[in-house]
Design goal:
two-stranded antiparallel ribbon, 21 helices, single chain, 411 residues, alpha+beta, Hydrophobic Seed Protein, Beta Polymerase, domain 2, elongated
Length: 411
């Protein structure tokens, strides 16, 4: 099958031309290069891709010479090169063939044929390559047909492919949700039967896949499928247990995450996923999920809990004065977005925050209080918060007014 360039949208033709320029540069050095995977799939779906994955048999030193501005990633023998130009993110990696898989990692060797590289890929809809200048689609697993049927199907026997890499089960759900595709029947059956293998994945791999899933279109459908098909209890048992016990918490979580978009931060997406757990099971339950199930580092754990603390105050408070503890929080902006969504879903008006007054002046600090009041170290933090409350409400605006406020307060 060949892509008919005359039928492409201008934006599709533009990205196709850019991909061809990158491939021509590699070909000019004596090597083969092909756009692969989602780039080809999205064009067939009528979308304009902005991520361009290129598979090549060129060794690393050639890619570094051709694209000296690219950054190098990867570990061991495997490296990939990324760069961004004219709004497109390009990732170049070397063709390889998997020799042995143990469910988590694969041993491989570098190869020269694109057909062999496509064989190691997970799903037929991703096992596509584009050959320039003919724009012929290399499709050895009927991926084009599966795209037209809108199904996610593994390459080869699904149980074998899931056994090779357990993460493929989560990836299948992510693609089904993102593309609004169905899981092909044998792929679905194997996924349900082997769902417990997900528990063998490292928390880091589960976290990274869930980040991609939550930031993709169709995240609600993906989370719904993860729960319904039995994978969620091996990703995050406490979250799965909550959803099984509390239909309202499950429904509200799905509605909340569906209101976010890919442009929102990872922090906001995970906070939305965990808010109902926070409300019903408490802060410690969420802290355990963040650290044990997803292995977020201490800073990210602090950030998520900070957003949830602040969001809870905004969501549950009915009087303007009750929101003041949230106003002084570092997390007021993401928390106000999440709280606004939850309150609207509950039939309540969002709490209005005057963000012009939440950028607190530098002079509201511990040194200012030490210079103008005789208090213990423990009291300084409380006085800082109180000064911020007073600033937010307009009770004070200048250091001189703050000094008088402190004098009156400490009388």
């Amino acid at each position: 099958m060949r892509i008919v360039r005359e039928e492409l949208k201008p934006s599709q033709e533009k990205v196709l031309q850019f991909a061809e320029q990158v491939c021509d540069a590699i070909s000019g050095a004596g090597y083969d290069a092909y756009p692969v995977g989602g780039f080809v799939r999205d064009i067939l779906l009528g979308k304009t891709p902005y991520d361009i994955d290129i598979s090549t048999n060129a060794p690393d030193h050639v890619i570094m010479r051709l694209f000296p501005y690219a950054t190098c990633g990867g570990t061991g023998r495997y490296h990939f090169f990324r760069f961004k130009r004219t709004g497109y993110l390009v990732e170049i990696s070397r063709m390889r063939e998997d020799l042995r898989c143990d469910g988590r990692q694969a041993e491989f060797r570098f190869i020269d044929r694109i057909e062999d590289d496509l064989k190691r890929r997970d799903f037929t809809i991703n096992a596509l390559a584009l050959s320039f200048p003919t724009v012929e689609i290399i499709d050895i697993f009927d991926g084009v047909e599966d795209i037209s049927r809108r199904v996610v199907r593994t390459i080869g026997e699904p149980r074998l492919r899931f056994e090779e890499d357990h993460l493929r089960m989560l990836r299948a759900i992510r693609y089904a949700g993102k593309l609004n595709f169905k899981l092909e029947e044998s792929t679905r059956h194997a996924l349900v039967e082997m769902a417990d293998r997900v528990s063998l994945l490292s928390a880091d791999r589960k976290r990274e896949e869930c980040i991609l899933l939550l930031r993709a279109p169709g995240r609600r459908r993906s989370v719904e499928m993860m729960f319904r098909l039995g994978l969620l209890k091996f990703v995050s048992p406490p979250l799965d247990e909550l959803f099984r016990q509390d239909a309202k918490a499950y429904s509200m979580t799905l509605k909340t995450i569906s209101k976010l978009s890919p442009r929102h931060s990872v922090l906001l997406h995970f906070s939305a996923l965990l808010y109902q757990l926070f409300v019903r099971k408490g802060r410690q339950a969420v802290s355990d999920v963040i650290s044990k199930d997803f292995n977020f580092d201490r800073k990210r754990r602090t950030d998520i809990l900070g957003v949830l603390d602040c969001c809870y105050i905004l969501t549950e408070s009915e009087k303007s004065g009750d929101v003041l503890p949230a106003v002084v929080s570092t997390y007021i902006k993401p928390a106000s977005i999440l709280s606004g969504i939850i309150r609207c879903l509950s039939g309540k008006e969002p709490v209005r925050i005057n963000f012009d007054r939440t950028d607190f002046p530098d002079w509201i600090c511990g040194d200012f209080i030490k210079e103008n009041a005789t208090v213990s170290g423990r009291a300084i933090g409380r006085l800082i918060r109180l000064l911020k409350y007073a600033y937010y409400t307009g009770e004070l605006n200048t250091p001189e007014e703050a000094k008088e406020w402190l004098r009156q307060y400490l009388l």
